[in-house]
Amino acid sequence: MVTDPVGRFLAALDPEHRENVGSAPRGDQERLAAAWERELESDDELDTLDELSPPAAEAEAARRVLARDAG
């Protein structure tokens, strides 16, 4: 089981985004992972999803973070 935030964030991404983010500089990966953790902690909707499927909640939070970062 991956315990570092960047590794957990990368694991939550779909394969295409995992490859793109994985090749980014470590500082960018850490920034995105921190935003991902904040998203997981702060969104009540994700809390409900997390109760049903933790991997789905993590993937949804990762999708949101990448969408904000791209936009």
TrEMBL record:
Comp. bias intervals (Acidic residues): 40-50
Residue span of region Disordered: 40-71
Protein name in UniProt: Uncharacterized protein
Segments of skewed composition (Basic and acidic residues): 60-71
